[in-house]
Amino acid sequence: MNLAKVLGTVVSTRKEESIRGLKFLLLAQVDPQRKPTGTHVVAADAVGAGVGEMVLYATGSSARQTTLTDNRPCDAVIMAIVDSWEVEGRDLYKKGRDD
Questions:
Q1: pLDDT averaged over every residue in the chain
Q2: Which residues, given as ranges, of the chain have pLDDT below 50?
Q3: What is the pTM of this model?
Q4: Looking at the domain assignment, is residue 37 inside a domain?
């Protein structure tokens, strides 16, 4: 799993039939201090995330193991909206406070 910030939405009117109905979001991967790593990915949204939120996403075969993406050609999926994280006893992110 990876941490990322949702940057925006990706819209496609023409697509493979098996991915119809999926919402796609553009993500910027971040490190534990919330600094961008330079990696960007488009991911299917399985949890209703929104722009500006911090999320957990999975890639590869793990991306096809959610109820929404099962047997669909997805290489990345958002599977959680992050509420907070701490490292070595220090709170580094709290939703709503640090957005």
A1: 93
A2: none
A3: 0.90
A4: yes
